[in-house]
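Table S2 (text version). Query chain:
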Amino acid sequence: MNGMQKMSQKEMEMVTGGKCNSDYGYFFCCPANADDMVATIENLMNSGQKNKASKYIQFCYEDCGY
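Corresponding structure-token output:
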């Protein structure tokens, strides 16, 4: 994993899916389930971050098995 950043204890506790990666230009962690993945994608799209949503979908497909 390239460019791993330090995470606070609170951030570490929030990571429920497991695998994290920053190879896609953003720091992503696998979602805990498909519903969390869909909610994250919807939030990114609704906030105008379409490129980040696209990279997140790619990450979930390639690294998380969704």
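Notes on Table S2: Residues 33-66 form one domain. The longest strand covers residues 20-21.
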